[in-house]
Each structure stands twice: as structure tokens, then as C-alpha cells.
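Hi all, posting the design record for the shared folder.

TITLE: backbone redesign
STEP: 1 of 1
STRUCTURE INPUT:
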């Protein structure tokens, strides 16, 4: 086995199993928020916080509840590995073990080590009455084991640490304390090396969750910002990591799913920039149980950031031979197509696409899913998981509504979900956008599509 293969095997062997998805949200089976993403040695690592439903010993059932951190990694932003818990509230000496407030973390590499920064309520002890500390845990690898320091960083308190390493190797810590802050760190990564600077010039509105990065010589201090009712994502730019910064406006609007918070990070991978953020996709009625999403991000020629519109489809290509979750659509007919949970009692089961008709309407019902990789070999069969009480007809086409017909399904009326398989009528190779059309029937529900 080559070294890289052995490394990937070891990474996978140490990982816990949880369902991760190529579409948004990317982490299934558990909640995740405040994603801090970095590229280490060509592999993407995401350090989110971990929302959980409040256990019996935590009184605030209507608030954030977070006891530990996982790390996830991927080399293509589509196939993810969960490396399991790296730090928890019970094993950090200074942390209040009943606090359930392990909020937004970050991690970065410096001088051969990985430094994981996290905020948490402090255990009352000699000289410390409580309050939030910002701690550090150190590892030889990006996925742990991380060994927590005995004490948090001295002289600061607050939440949402972000660690930025400049091109010359100088580390900076950004965080949310009394306003948005930034300070230089000493080379040991554990002590401040400058007075904290407060970021000024931001129009009135609550701010938190900073993420600091550099592109083409400019520094970007980015943060959630309540302009109106909920958090948007906004930013400032500067020529120096400690500022002065100039406010530039928003790059994501507040969520349409009524998630009060948002929290984000940026990476560049193979020349493409990506935005990691969170909404509350799996928990529409309780926005303290959030989920991490990724979307493409673009800059204008003058370095300003273009607005990002959250998508269900997310990023990357999806293999035709995997279960293509068509409900994570790229586009759809304006009317008569909707998405709903498969099981509203257990939302992690995911969603279904619903296509319906009324007798007066003749417009086609369709839904499309971009970037499906059909590979280079002929695919013979197409399968859909489908449900229709009265029956109908479904067509799968490539590239456009009038593109080549890949498969046609007669869906019999049935009370239960069923998998229907047909021979592929025309096989395509390479990456194509997939269109699903309801060509007959009044109500058809589709879970996924798959080719073999
Ligand atoms: O996740 C808890 C808090 O909510 C974070 O620290 C904030 O940034 C907000 O996302």
C-alpha cells in the first residue's frame, strides 16, 4: 500500500460512523453548527460545534446545549469522515462540567502542531469566579488526540475564537468579547503578544463569530451581524491584520428558515472558494439545533465578496451510482413541486420531492439536480424510490427538460414506498445535470434516484 492510501485507511479506521452527505446539510444523524473549516495538507477539516437536545441535568431546554466537539474531514467536500469527539466539557480541567456551552471553536496549524481553540464556561476556582474562558488543546494531527491545556488563555474572556496564521507565520486570535476583537499571539500560541484591538466602524447591530482570513494581500474580518431580525454574514477589509478595518457589507442574508444565528468560515481548495455556514434544516421549529452547509463563494475583481445564496444542492459532483437525493434540488418548476421530510418524527431520515398536478394545469412538473457524474462506463439500469397513491409517470432526462431521456417509469398506484427499476434507454458519460419530470399523474413523491 502507498503511504497516502495507508494514511487514508488509518484516518477512516479511527473514525466513528455517522451519515455524511454531499448535499446540504453535510452532516446527518446529529446536529452541527459554527463550522470552522481549514485545508491541511490538501485535506479539508471542519471543526463545528455540536448541538444536542438538552439532557435531564441541563435546565435550559430552550437554549443552546453543547457538551463536546467532533472533527470531520474530506478530500473532495463530498465524501466526509467523522473522526469522533476530540474535546468535551468533562475532560478539560478548567471547564464547568455541567455548563453545556462548548460554543464555536476553531483550529489551526503552527510549527508542527495543531491548536484547537474553544470557548467554555469556567469552573469557579481560586482567583476565578466563573465567566467564559477561551481554551486551547494541542495535537500532532488535525484529528487528534488533542490534549487540553490546564488553564484557558490568560487576560481574555468571551466566545467564538478564530485563529489566523499570517504568511510570515505570525499567529492572530480573533474573538467576540467586548465587541469583535483581534490580537497578535506569541509563538507559543497560548499568550497574547499585543493589546486586543476592537473592530470599529460596523453599523449598529449585534456581532459575534469572527473568521479572519487573507486573500491577495488583503485581510478579511468576517462575522455574523444582526442588521434586522436575525444574523446575516458581513465583513470588513484591511491592509493589516490588526486593522484599521473598513466595513464592506453583507455576503449572506438572514436565513429564510428562521434560524436566528449563522456562523461561517472560508476555504480555498484547488482555486475555488467555499463558504461553510449553518442553518436549521433538520430542526425547523427549534433553531438551537443547527446543521452545517457549504456553498460556492466568489469574489469581485476589487476583492469584495459576492452575495452567497444558500442552496440545498451544496457543492461538488454526485456519483450517478450513489443515491442521488433529488430533493436537494438545484432548480424546479415554479409551481407544483415541494420538499418535505420523509418522517417528521425523525428528520435525519431526510426529505422527499413532491410533484403534483391539478386537472386544469398542463405545465410540466420537474425538478433538477446539477453535476451528476455518470462515469465513463455504460450504465444499464435506473432506480427511483417512489410513492404515489394514484400512480403516474416519471422521466429522467440529461442536461435539459428536452434533453435525452435516460429512463421512463410507470409508477403504479400503491399505498407504500417502493423502489422501481427500469433499463436505461440512453446512457450518457461524464458529468451532466439531471432532470426529473412528472409526465403523467396527479401526485408523485420521490425519495432518491440511482443508476447502475
Ligand atoms: O453556537 C453557539 C453560538 O451561536 C456561537 O458561539 C455563536 O457564534 C452562534 O452561532
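Okay, here is what came back for every position:
SEQUENCE:
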Amino acid at each position: 500500500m502507498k503511504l497516502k492510501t495507508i494514511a487514508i485507511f488509518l484516518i477512516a479506521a479511527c473514525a466513528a460512523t455517522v451519515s455524511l452527505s454531499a448535499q446540504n446539510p453535510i452532516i446527518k444523524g446529529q446536529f452541527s453548527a459554527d463550522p470552522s473549516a481549514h485545508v491541511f495538507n490538501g485535506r479539508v477539516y471542519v471543526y463545528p460545534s455540536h448541538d444536542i437536545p438538552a439532557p435531564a441535568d441541563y435546565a435550559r431546554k430552550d437554549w443552546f446545549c453543547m457538551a463536546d466537539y467532533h472533527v470531520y474531514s474530506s478530500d473532495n467536500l463530498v465524501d466526509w469522515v467523522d473522526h469522533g469527539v476530540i474535546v468535551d466539557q468533562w475532560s478539560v480541567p478548567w471547564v464547568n462540567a455541567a455548563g453545556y456551552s462548548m460554543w464555536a471553536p476553531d483550529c489551526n496549524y503552527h510549527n508542527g502542531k495543531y491548536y484547537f481553540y474553544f470557548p467554555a464556561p469556567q469552573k469557579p476556582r481560586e482567583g476565578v469566579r466563573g465567566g467564559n474562558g477561551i481554551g486551547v488543546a494541542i495535537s500532532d494531527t488535525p484529528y487528534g488526540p488533542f490534549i487540553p491545556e490546564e488553564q484557558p488563555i490568560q487576560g481574555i474572556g468571551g466566545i467564538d475564537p478564530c485563529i489566523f496564521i499570517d504568511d510570515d507565520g505570525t499567529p492572530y486570535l480573533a474573538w467576540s468579547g467586548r465587541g469583535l476583537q483581534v490580537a497578535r499571539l506569541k509563538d507559543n500560541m497560548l499568550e497574547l503578544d499585543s493589546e486586543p484591538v476592537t473592530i470599529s466602524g460596523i453599523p449598529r447591530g449585534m456581532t459575534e463569530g469572527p473568521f479572519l482570513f487573507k486573500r491577495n494581500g488583503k485581510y478579511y474580518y468576517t462575522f455574523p451581524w444582526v442588521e434586522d431580525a436575525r444574523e446575516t454574514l458581513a465583513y470588513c477589509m484591511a491592509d493589516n491584520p490588526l486593522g484599521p478595518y473598513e466595513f464592506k457589507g453583507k455576503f449572506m442574508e438572514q436565513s429564510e428558515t428562521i434560524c436566528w444565528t449563522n456562523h461561517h468560515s472560508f476555504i480555498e481548495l484547488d482555486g475555488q472558494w467555499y463558504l461553510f455556514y449553518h442553518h436549521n434544516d433538520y430542526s425547523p421549529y427549534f433553531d438551537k439545533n443547527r446543521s452545517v452547509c457549504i456553498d460556492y463563494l466568489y469574489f469581485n475583481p476589487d476583492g469584495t465578496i459576492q452575495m452567497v445564496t444558500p442552496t440545498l444542492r451544496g457543492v461538488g459532483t454526485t456519483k450517478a451510482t450513489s443515491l442521488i437525493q433529488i430533493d436537494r434540488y438545484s432548480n424546479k418548476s415554479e409551481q407544483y413541486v415541494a420538499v418535505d421530510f420523509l418522517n417528521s418524527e425523525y428528520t435525519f431520515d431526510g426529505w422527499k420531492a413532491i410533484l403534483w398536478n391539478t386537472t386544469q394545469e398542463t405545465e410540466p412538473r420537474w425538478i433538477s439536480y446539477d453535476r451528476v457524474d455518470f462515469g465513463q462506463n455504460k450504465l444499464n439500469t435506473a432506480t427511483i424510490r417512489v410513492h404515489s397513491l394514484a400512480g403516474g409517470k416519471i422521466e429522467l432526462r440529461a442536461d435539459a427538460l428536452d434533453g435525452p431521456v435516460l429512463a421512463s417509469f410507470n409508477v403504479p398506484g400503491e399505498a407504500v414506498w417502493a423502489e422501481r427499476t427500469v433499463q436505461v434507454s440512453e446512457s450518457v458519460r461524464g458529468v451532466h445535470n439531471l432532470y426529473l419530470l412528472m409526465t403523467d399523474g396527479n401526485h408523485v413523491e420521490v425519495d432518491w434516484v440511482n443508476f447502475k
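COMMENT: Residues 1-18 have pLDDT under 50 and may be disordered.
Let me know if anyone wants the other runs.
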